[in-house]
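Hello, quick one for you while I still have it in my head. A protein chain has come my way and I'm curious about its shape. I'm sending you its amino acid sequence along with the backbone structure tokens. I'd be grateful if you could look everything over and explain what you see. Here's the protein in full, and shout if anything looks odd to you:
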Amino acid sequence: MPDGLRIADNLVFPLDAVTQTFALLAVRRAGKSNAAAVMAEAMFAAGLPFVAIDPKGDWWGLRSSADGTGDGLPIPIFGGLRGDMPLTPESGKLIADLIVEQNLTCILDVSRFSKAARVRFLTPFAERLYELHQAEPQPRHLFMEEADRVVPQKVTQDMAPCVGAFSDIVRLGGSFGLGATLISQRSAVINKDVLTQVETMIALRTTSPQDRKVIRDWMEHHALAAEIVDSLPGLLSGEAWVSSSFFLAEHGQEPLQRVRFRRRSTFDSGATPKVGQQRKAASLADINLGALQERMTAITEKAAQDDPVALRQKITQLERRLRAAAPTADEDRLVAENRDLRRDLDAALARPPERVEVPVLQPGDMAALEQGITGIRDVAATLELALSRAASAPKPAPSQPAIAAAVPASKPRQAPSVAASVPAEGIGSESTATVSDSGERGPLVLGKPHRALLTVLAQFPDGRTYSQLAMLSGYSTRPAMMKKALGQLRTAGLVEPGRPLKATGSGIEALDGEYEELPAGPELLDAWIERLGGAEGVFLKALIDAWPGSLTKDQIAEITGYSDRPAMLKKALGRLRTLELIEGHDEMRADETLAEQAVGADA
């Protein structure tokens, strides 16, 4: 075993570096990835285990030689395009169990995951890894590539658990043998509460004033901090300032050193392609996957024993087998009673509140009333047409009163939250304001649908697609109403023509700043599930949980316990498909817009 981790001609990290924390910061093409690979190679040579979290998909180069023709380090890759075994968003905890049980050095390639799926994998992974090290402390290092994606400065509701889990590893993991290296080209957007807990700063070429300020704040204890930070833009590729207030000094080394990292001995899979140069393929070192796959299977089966969903599936399967095995009368009776109880419970949950209609008008009165309403609508349409023509005609002389001036504008009212409900009124109902596009087009009386659509567009300046607008405004259930309202908004100049759909300045002004922010994250999903109720809500939740993956009808039935109710399953899935909340037939997937909003995926 080497005496230390040689990363440069004039710097050798002590072996204890495996349990320490580092920040490796630099702009693109400054040697950041090479420096991280050098540290990983040195740990591997010393027999120190590490795990690389790779959202870029280029850590696989460790498996090949520098020229790409020979073997590199024989370490397994989970996920990504070159993975030895796949990753799923739900496998984070299982992978942590496997890594600790096997004392495994590996690469977790999460580059093929969406943002939401990445968070769903990394959060339980980090929580479980920390928990296992608490129970049995042991040395292990965690390389966090693109750390600003894992522990960002701006912590949204969906990211909070992930940031909290990795913050625990950086702040407290050393006590249990867990070290970490945060790697990023954007120092300014890494979570400051996490970055301040790092023990050693490795700063390569950095040019942005905002990013250099973060490094300077971290080094402010050092007398030469200002000079060091001022020198960062001029560093050559691979050159770095290594600063440690305690770790290096504890091992008899200078706490501040300027070094140049050696070149990695493995394949530089993240190198920027050059114009006219064909990227060469690299061969990967072989690894023994047999034993690893066996342990993965065993851990997966063990975890399934404690999984409520898996247990419910198993119960359903056992009931099927029991019925198929000619059971005794008592067994048959118990199964039937269990099935009846489940059916009655599901029916009670799905049944809407009883509605009793009390007639107030006689049939003849209703007919007369409907005829009167039809006449009123005809008059309203005639007035709207007259107003539109009057607004587009040349302005009358001062002595001639304008038709539009005789119609008073109604007082604006604050718009209701629209993302979780669908208005029952028509397009012209509940008018809230009279607006026009600088007098060039006819005035439009804003109804609830208009305000609902404008409320969404006002909060998305870059625009939304038609399906996104329908989903967020709550009008995916009434496409004809939305289409008509959208056409009227375009005609009035309140929505821009073309795609994506954007509100004009006049459209935003028409709301007078009186609208509520849209529900987001789990609140949006809860609103839809509450509105759907019954089986539809249950199935939608199952598909959201599986997103971005898909489920077959049989899988949905097994997960939700509706295997014995095929008619209800078919009807509920059909309704969800009609509402455009799900897509697909053989394999169904939650609507992307709803899923991304509900679980926080990249827009």
Residues 522-599 form a domain with the Arc Repressor Mutant, subunit A fold (CATH 1.10.10).
